């Protein structure tokens, strides 16, 4: 539950009818810079269709603020994506069994820079603990040049635990990533 006066943040599974909106978000310069996705209907179907159909082990979740779709959170166990997990391990990152990773975006540039991203990530982490009993940690690599995303993670309570050279999403970026982590709170 949100504190009084704060907007309510909720998540729901990405649906086929969300793909045009997702394409518009991915085309926004502040998103395209870091996500580097094609936005044609065919590309959106290729990249997100399996998730929409429930054929993907990870989850693509639409972020709702007071019932309005404003962004996307991707949530997955790293064990379900062995090449990505293995790349992290090979770069010297401690990836515990049960580690979950997140990726996130706010599609409307007017919603950035006001703390909403921090609230979304903090809520995504909280829900990982509540909804994924096997989740032991949240591990999120971010290109070192993405200072806004790094600040969001830090303000949401994740700590920088490693630096690693990883394949960047955008080929224009260098491989340097900062790796952030939060561990499941002890009960």
Automatic annotation (TrEMBL):
Keyword Cytoplasm belongs to the record: no
Location of region: Disordered: 162-187
Ranges where the N-acetyltransferase domain occurs: 9-185
Gene3D superfamilies linked: 3.40.630.30
Top-rank taxon, per record: Bacteria
InterPro entries attached to this UniProt entry: Acyl_CoA_acyltransferase, GNAT_dom
Keyword Acyltransferase attributed: no
Pfam families: Acetyltransf_8
Keywords: Antibiotic resistance
Protein name in the entry: Acetyltransferase
Species the sequence originates in: Cellulosimicrobium composti
Biological classification of the source: Bacteria, Bacillati, Actinomycetota, Actinomycetes, Micrococcales
């Amino acid at each position: 539950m949100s504190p009084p006066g704060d907007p309510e943040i909720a998540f729901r599974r990405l649906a086929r009818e969300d793909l045009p909106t997702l394409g518009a978000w991915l085309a926004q310069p502040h998103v395209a810079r870091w996500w580097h996705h094609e936005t044609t209907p065919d590309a959106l179907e290729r990249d997100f269709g399996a998730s929409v159909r429930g054929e993907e082990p990870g989850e693509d979740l639409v972020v709702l603020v007071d019932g309005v779709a404003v962004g996307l959170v991707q949530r997955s166990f790293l064990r379900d994506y062995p090449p990505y997990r293995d790349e992290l391990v090979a770069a010297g990152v401690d990836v515990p069994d049960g580690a979950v990773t997140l990726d996130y975006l706010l599609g409307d540039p007017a919603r950035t820079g006001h703390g909403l991203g921090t609230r979304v990530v903090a809520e995504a982490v909280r829900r990982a603990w509540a909804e994924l009993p096997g989740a032991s940690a949240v591990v999120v690599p971010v290109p070192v040049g993405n200072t806004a995303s790094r600040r969001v993670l830090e303000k949401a309570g994740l700590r920088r635990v490693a630096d690693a050279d990883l394949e960047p999403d955008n080929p224009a970026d260098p491989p340097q990533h900062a790796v952030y982590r939060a561990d499941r709170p002890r009960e």
